[in-house]
């Protein structure tokens, strides 16, 4: 069972490369924010898998909840900032 969850964790890390590409090469700021949010969501699941592998799920659930809350607040703050700046739907500045 530990081998199964280890394989799932490695697969999850590999699937995190797709949002990382969107985060780095996204044409708009909104695409980059969605990529960061997707990476944060997958990280929460990865933390729970690590907690199961170390047999300390209770501790890692608290860490995952705190990380999910920080991820949510950071994406909300960034989207509000770019919406106020009117730069949410414009082209990328790294061309």
TrEMBL record:
GO terms for cellular component: plasma membrane. It is found in: Cell membrane. Its main location: membrane. It is a multi-pass membrane protein. The keyword Cell inner membrane does not apply. Pfam families: MrpF_PhaF. The chain crosses the membrane at residues 6-24, 36-54, 60-78. One of its GO terms (molecular function) is sodium:proton antiporter activity. Keywords: Cell membrane, Membrane, Transmembrane, Transmembrane helix, Transport. Belongs to the CPA3 antiporters (TC 2.A.63) subunit F family. PANTHER family: NA(+)/H(+) ANTIPORTER SUBUNIT F1 (PTHR34702), NA(+)_H(+) ANTIPORTER SUBUNIT F (PTHR34702:SF1). This is Multicomponent Na(+)/H(+) antiporter subunit F. It comes from Desulfotignum phosphitoxidans DSM 13687. The lineage of its organism: Bacteria, Pseudomonadati, Thermodesulfobacteriota, Desulfobacteria, Desulfobacterales.
